[in-house]
Amino acid sequence: MGASEATPSTPTVETDPAETDPTHDRSFFGHPRGLLTLFGTEMWERFSYLGMTAILTLYFTASAADGGMGMADGTASSVYAAYSTMIYLISVAGGWLADRILGSYRSVLYGGVCIACGHYTMAVPTNGVTWIGLGLIIVGTGLLKPNVSTLVGKLYSTEDERRDAGFALYYMGINIGAFLGPLVAGWLGQKVGFHWGFSAAAIGMTFGIIQYVLGRKHLAGRQDGAESALPPEAMRRAVRMILAGIAAVAVAFGILAAAGVLTMGLTVNIVTGVSVVTPIAYFTFLFRSPRVTVAERGRLRPYLVLFSASVAFNLVLFQSYSTMNLLALNHANTDFFGWHFPSSWYGSVLGVAEVVLAPVVAATWVRLGHRQPHASNKIAYGVILGGLSFLIMVPATMNRTGDWVMSGAWLIACYLVLGLGDILLETTGMSATTKLAPAAFASQAMALWFLSLALANGIQAQSVKLYGTVSDPAYFGLNGGFVVLVGLAVIAAGPWLRRTMHPVR
Question: Residue 60: how many CB atoms within 10 A of its CB?
């Protein structure tokens, strides 16, 4: 009997292509079902991360009697910035680990577990374990953050016309989490107790892990290892070096702590130093690498300008949960017809702004077609809006004395302008990064973008020390004015950027 003939006793089973290849699946609003899994994963991760972040600086500054750590406003903002710096520095390593050792699926899973453990640790009402919890969240976010979007991309073929719309749905999940997290954790943290707010973040991340594991069969590449896996011996050597490096850093910090040299200020300064040295070293490597062509090296030069623009914008953006949070706590009106809501709820406005404005921006670019601004101008507009958001706070805080209160409309206006700027800069910036990165290092393209975020936080860890030592109008005016000037400089460099970025538009 020929191999192609079926015996009567052997039924022919037709397999749904969606079961074996998620790229054929259209069960989630016309998209692969795996998108729902990743939508939920990132929504709960943002819920937990931004929910905790909404009260973290407030926890740092609250007195011990109120369950906090009693830091000064500037110190608390500096420590928060250093924490954010570490997250983005570790994200660079997280992308490499997924690419070379773990694979994207396991990186996201292990990262989620680390994040949940970190939040549960912070839920323990003892200040001493706070640093252990934050350390676990740093490692977990570094593993999860750069790799979830990679899994989203694997759900679609390169030619799939649903790809951009799928990412739009995915980012909607991010913004829903960004909206809900501060509402829930913020209310619990400020009305019940900080550790109750941290518990809410922990439970949220646990939900994210559960639905991620339950929906794993719908994810493309879930059974794949690392895409560019190291050979076995090289992998063992890399693991040994990583573990040795971690041990060396732990021993060094332990010795400094035992000697009484390791202070909070020194730790922040070390983190800032690493955030400055790392991008310098990375760009130096790219410019000197023989795997980078002359044309690619030429496109790296304009990318340095866009990189700097991202740093300037994020100097403002990442203060949403530090200095702006403290300003809202101390001076914003939180009365709503006799009911006082938590000041941290103002942070949710940023998530709402991005959910509402992102479709408007996307539709505008579609309508303009070839008449839409060049990528460098979009980024410049985003930077200018970021600066303007802080300049809004100058008249809001001017000529204020004593125990003053301002209308919440000032904060809402600030966050709306900042949210629009974030949409313009982040979406265009990440797209330009993938297009301008050298082909030999395409898989590490997002590392470049994360380094700009790390550097912004590293610099901010120093600049926010001025908060509370200079007047509020001076602080917000200097920050906002500097960022606006950077945006104008990028516009002035537009002709050169259009020429050197060609054919990228």
Answer: 24
